[in-house]
Design brief:
CATH class of the largest domain in chain A: Mainly Alpha
Largest sheet of chain A: 2 strands, antiparallel
CATH architecture of the largest domain in chain A: Orthogonal Bundle
Number of domains of chain A: 2
Distance between the termini of chain A: 33 Å
Strand content of chain A: under 5%
CATH topology of the largest domain in chain A: MetI-like fold
CATH superfamily of the largest domain in chain B: P-loop containing nucleotide triphosphate hydrolases
Shape of chain B: globular
Number of domains of chain B: 2
Strand order of the largest sheet of chain A: 1-2
Oligomer: heterodimer
Strand content of chain B: 25-35%
Shape of chain A: globular
Strand order of the largest sheet of chain B: 6-7-8-3-9-10
Radius of gyration of chain A: 23 Å
Chain lengths: 282, 357
């Protein structure tokens, strides 16, 4: 029984690992292939199965005039929009969450929990429902096809995540902490900034991580709300797909686009393993 | 340090309700500068609400609070210059022990040298000196509570230090020492200390004035001796002392005596103005002794149980349909039958509708 259990355990771990790693391995090897190698069937081992070359990677930084695809600008656009929207969402979301956790709001039948649910409900709605209102809204304020417009939209999408995580986190921070800070001589703002916020860093990191992930991977709104002036990375990658799919550069750009998330995951994972976040995600 | 006046204070947490339930019924009281007070009562009786009203965390539904005759009812907590220690450790996790202790001084703009001096002095008193540079979150629960206590004591000029069952998480040895330290601090700096507890021993050993509360009402204020010997209500008699006060249903017999099971018991209370028949006689088990050669206030009892509790013996006996308890010295020989107990008249308290006459 015990042996069967160990066998099944390792069997499923191996199956899952293959399932997760295989696409990366496929993308990694494909990014070093050329047209012939890609069409020569499924091969994985460089120099033996196929002759590796860097063409797929080189075109990523070459300008279109020289036959490249130049993902550098979309890359930095994505980085800027994601970081700016995440930062603003975290700031606004944390302030809202603190207020929702500590003060009682009441407007008719609407109370604190309903307001929190209202924020979360923004994420329940299918994105397509929001696309036309966002389009008309940005167009009315002349922010279509601009980084600022995208940041505004992303704040709407990311702030609910920050509110949701931080309300839960602040609810677990004892009220006595705030009260002690008031007794020690802080005003409510100082109590929040000097005492509650430093105690909430684990929650902020988790909220920040989710905001960055959801901001970075968005394709839908980036696709609908931008045309020629501004392009984000996911849109650029999809645009690479032409009549003859350049699998090598597509794979390379996919790997490059995943890189920041892997870095975020490593940092958060190291923090998690120290036990610093245990309270934040329980 | 200040004299604190609580004038006609009352509080309800559901003020919008047409028939609100009061967490604190109206009361007035003065806390003199430099005294030690204990607020004693069972859980949920309004002790913490009273502290929170004084510190400003809760605004009373009615009444005024005055610090040295200055009305502070509408003053915010941070402007009241008061210290409060909660039941469970509240520490600033991201700071060191030193930073935790220095925080109240830093918030109020004390100089670096003054802060150093006060933090070191408090750390010395609370045995925290060797941990000053450690991160506060790495300390044990009782050390964390010491930090909370230290933050309460670090300012010398506070109006009062309010402590809400602060020693609950501290082990008994240290508890005893800390209570002594708190007394010393009070004597040395004349800081007004208010200590909330549901443990009567803690209250009796710590305070020179005890405020007993029950169901949102202040039922008695007085010295430990007064509370022990002349409880104002049967609740205080029952709540204070171990074992609780002996209470017997009785009827008035003359101007100064009552009858229990047809036995006449003389008291020193004037019973001529009784309005009801709901009379109880109360007497502490400490004052009931085995009769030697007294000839009044004697009751025949059947001894049911004698417990040797180390420094005294506790006799549990039956007197008709009442149980009676008596504390006697360890050396006392307790006869097996024909036991007579003596109830001294001057120690008998008579209660009408559960209130002392």
């Amino acid at each position: 029984m015990n042996k069967l259990y160990i066998f099944l355990k390792y069997f499923f771990i191996i199956v899952w690992t293959v399932f997760v790693v295989a696409p990366f391995l496929w993308a990694l090897t494909t990014s070093f292939k050329d047209f012939q190698s890609v069409n020569a069937g499924v091969t994985y081992i460089p120099w033996i199965d196929f002759e590796p070359n860097l063409e797929g990677w080189k075109v990523l930084i070459k300008s279109p005039a020289k036959g490249g695809v130049d993902i550098v600008e979309p890359y930095f656009n994505s980085l800027f929009v994601t970081c700016a929207a995440s930062l603003i969402s975290i700031i606004l979301g944390t302030l809202s969450a603190y207020a929702l956790s500590r003060y009682t709001f009441k407007a008719g039948f609407v109370k604190n929990n309903d307001i929190t649910f209202f924020f979360i409900s923004q994420r329940i709605m299918p994105p397509i429902v929001l696309s036309i209102p966002f389009f008309l809204f940005l167009s009315s304020i002349n922010l279509l096809d601009s980084l600022t417009g995208l940041i505004v939209v992303y704040i709407v999408l990311l702030m609910p995540i920050a509110v949701w995580i931080m309300v839960d986190f602040f609810n677990k921070v004892p009220r006595e902490i705030d009260e002690t800070a008031l007794i020690d001589g802080c005003n409510p703002y100082q109590a929040f900034l000097k005492v509650v916020l430093p105690n909430s860093i684990p929650g902020l990191i988790v909220a920040g991580m989710f905001c960055i992930i959801f901001g970075w991977i968005d394709f839908f709104f980036a696709f609908i709300l931008t045309f020629t002036e501004v392009q984000l990375l996911p849109v650029k990658i999809v645009a690479l797909n032409s009549s003859v799919t350049p699998w090598w550069s597509l794979s390379a750009s996919a790997l490059v686009s995943v890189a920041p998330l892997i870095i975020v995951a490593f940092i958060v994972e190291r923090y998690l393993s120290k036990g610093n976040l245990s309270g934040a995600i329980k | 340090m200040a004299k604190i006046d609580l004038s006609k204070i009352s509080h309800t947490y559901n003020s919008n309700d047409p028939n609100p339930v009061y967490a604190l019924n109206p009361f007035s009281m003065t806390w003199e500068n430099g005294n030690r007070y204990a607020i004693l009562g069972p859980s949920g009786c309004g002790k913490t609400t009273m502290l929170n009203i004084v510190s400003g965390l809760v605004r009373p539904s009615a009444g005024r609070i005055l610090f040295d005759d200055k009305d502070v009812t509408d003053l915010r907590t941070e402007d009241r210059n008061i210290a409060q220690v909660f039941q469970f450790p509240v520490i600033y996790n991201t700071m060191t022990v030193y930073e935790n202790l220095a925080f109240p001084l830093k918030c109020r703009g004390f100089s670096k040298s003054k802060t150093d001096e006060r933090v070191n002095s408090v750390a010395e008193t609370l045995n925290l000196k060797s941990f000053l540079n450690s991160p506060a979150r790495k300390l044990t629960a009782d050390q964390k509570q010491l930090i909370s206590l230290g933050r309460g004591l670090v300012r010398e000029d506070v109006a009062a230090v309010l402590m809400d069952e602060p020693l609950t998480v501290i082990d008994p040895d240290l508890k005893f020492r800390l209570r002594r330290n708190l007394k010393e601090i009070n004597e040395q700096y004349k800081t007004t200390l208010v200590y909330v507890t549901h443990d009567q021993n803690e209250a009796m050993t710590f305070a020179d004035n005890i405020i007993v509360m029950s169901e949102g009402e202040v039922v008695q204020t007085g010295s430990p001796k007064e509370l022990f010997e002349r409880p104002n209500t049967t609740f205080v008699g029952y709540f204070i002392g171990s074992p609780a006060m002996n209470l017997f249903e009785s009827e008035a017999s003359s101007n100064d005596s009552v009858k229990i099971n047809n036995i006449l018991i003389k008291t020193h209370t004037n019973l001529s103005n009784l309005k009801t028949k709901n009379i109880k006689l109360g007497i502490r088990s400490e004052f009931i002794k085995i009769a030697q050669n007294q000839n009044e206030n004697l009751v025949d009892v059947n001894v049911e149980k004698v417990e040797d509790l180390g420094n005294y013996k506790l006799i549990t006996a039956k007197m008709g349909n009442f149980m009676i308890k008596s504390k006697v010295s360890r050396e006392t020989e307790i006869p097996t039958k024909d036991v007579k107990l003596h109830l001294p008249a001057d120690k008998c308290c008579v209660y009408e509708n559960n209130r002392l006459i």
